ATP-binding cassette domain-containing protein
Amino acid sequence: MITTSGLTKTYRTRGREVTAVDDVDLTVREGEVYGVIGQSGAGKSSLIRCINLLERPTSGTVTVDGTDLTALAGRGNRAGRELRRARSRIGMVFQHFNLLSTRTVQDNIELPLEILGHSGAARSRKALELLDLVGLADKAKAYPAQLSGGQKQRVGIARALAGDPKVLLSDEATSALDPETTRSILQLLRDLGQQLGLTVLLITHEMDVVKSICDSAALMEQGRIIESGTVPELLATPGSQLASALFPVSGESGDPERTVLDVTFLGESTSRPVISQLSRTYNIDISILGAAMDTVAGRQVGRMRIELPGRYEDNVVPIGFLREQGLHVENAADAAGEAPSAAEAAPALVKEGAK
Ligand SMILES: Nc1ncnc2c1ncn2[C@@H]1O[C@H](COP(=O)(O)OP(=O)(O)OP(=O)(O)O)[C@@H](O)[C@H]1O
Ligand SMILES: [Mg+2]
């Protein structure tokens, strides 16, 4: 639904060059919620602004719903007619809501429809329908100043949906909100996505956002996408920084005569007593060094760091047993060697709410 190929954006200011987006190839499939996560300055906002052509990319292409937007003329406020039309099919939700304070809630939602030239009656019908959809049917005549942050963002979402978009882009839509409101807005985005068949691309620096609603995710660093995939794929990728930030497990063993394994359980395997079966079948004592269970992308996921007696080479059979049960097993020593810990690799991502 959204594809970028070799997307690059270089800003030139007073002789200085900053490559904010560097050769990004991104594919967002129809109907999925895709999260791009990264620290401040990683280029996330630049990426999203290039995707809806608010910024003209320096090079590369952006295709949304089969239309190559980069081939259409104009940019920003001077977009040509075709680009404006294509853009009206892309809804955008902003961190600071961007509502007009002198207009009522209903008039804010009608604004994009006014620009598209819809009649008064059609605009008002659509606005009321959308207000109902976001749970604010009774606030049509209120002004933005009379709403809470969460309610303002609901208006922002309704406005983004006014042009019946197929794609919704969201830049830090929840980072100005408290955790409870964040959860309700995320749930709303997820529900609307399903109900309206939207493809949602959201930008965030909060791992919790990815955890609660994303089907797929990408990690951005210095303008580049350094990891991407569906959340289950990422969780099953040895040494994945996103996986360990989504799901940190810790627990140290200093004993080289013992084997430390990181075991990831997905879906129904979370409820099977695999560890006790392993212990009984091979008559071995297993120590649990660290463990966590959570819901990621609507699925139960568990991660556990366990320790078995003997060296890795001596444990080939029990490890094979765990893999046969559908678990992802990696040698914790390998993972530590291949990639730094989540906290070292992506400190802002593991600290909740860090900016
Ligand atoms: N209009 C601009 N002109 C010049 N440089 C810019 C412009 N917009 C962004 N940059 C630079 O591009 C880089 C990426 O910025 P961007 O806003 O895309 O990051 P971000 O990942 O969205 O960060 P944050 O999480 O803080 O919002 C930064 O180094 C920034 O200073
Ligand atoms: Mg940003």
User: Anything to note?
Assistant: The CA atoms of residues 33 and 200 lie 5 Å apart.
